[in-house]
Amino acid sequence: MIATQDLIDQALAKLRAALPELEVDHYPANPATFRLNHPLGAVLLAYPGSNSTGTMLMGRVEQVRTVRLGLTLVTRQLWGDDGAATLLDRLRTALVGWRPEDCEPVVALGDRLLQEDAGLWWYAAEFACNTRLIVPIHA
Q1: Calpha distance 24→90 (Å, rounded)
Q2: CB-side exposure of 127: number of CA atoms within 13 Å?
Q3: Average pLDDT in the 90-94 region?
Q4: What per-residue confidence (pLDDT) applies to 31?
Q5: pLDDT of 1
Q6: Which domain holds residue 131?
Q7: Is there a contact between 37 and 107 (Cβ–Cβ < 8 Å)?
Q8: More exposed terminus of the chain, fewer Cβ within 10 Å: N or C?
Q9: What one-character DSSP code corresponds to residue 39?
């Protein structure tokens, strides 16, 4: 099983390599204070959580953990090569099918418009991958 922080770090590196013209960073701890200073836009990576299913087998617990990655795209353009629609396509191309360490390939779960605010377009996109946790039963 991959540690959550390791998955986030790998995803940030993947996105930075795939979208070098954008700011790519962690989602801010205080979103109300976020200001887009980049001339084109930003991709902000969050960890919205995970779900697990599991079974007990001979002396161990085996779980499949679906880890979600939440991306917020903030851009100044809605259409064109630097627009939200094109950049969302590029996010999907970068992540879908990518196989992080100790995980199954990443899949897209969906995306949606969050808001337009003062000329900035805010979109949310969510991706997920499965990893396995196997631990012995202990007291």
Answers
A1: 13
A2: 26
A3: 96
A4: 86
A5: 77
A6: 4-136
A7: no
A8: C
A9: S
Q: Provide the CATH number for the domain around residue 71.
A: 3.30.2000.10
Cβ neighbours of 115 (radius 10 Å): 9
- Give pTM, 2 decimals: 0.90
Residues 6+ apart with CB under 8 A from 1: 65, 102, 131, 132, 133, 134
> Any residues with CB less than 8 A from the CB of 13 and at least 6 apart, and which?
none
- Which tokens go with 33? 């204070």
Query: Which of these, 68, 62, 71, lies nearest to 1 by C-alpha position?
Result: 62
Going by C-alpha positions, the residue among 111, 119, 105, 117 that lies closest to residue 91 is 111
pLDDT digits (tens, 9 = 90+) for 42-90: 999 999 999 998 776 778 888 899 999 999 999 999 999 999 999 999 9
Q: How many domains does the chain fold into?
A: 1
Rg (CA), the chain: 17
Task: Tell me the C-alpha distance between 103 and 11, whole Å.
Answer: 12
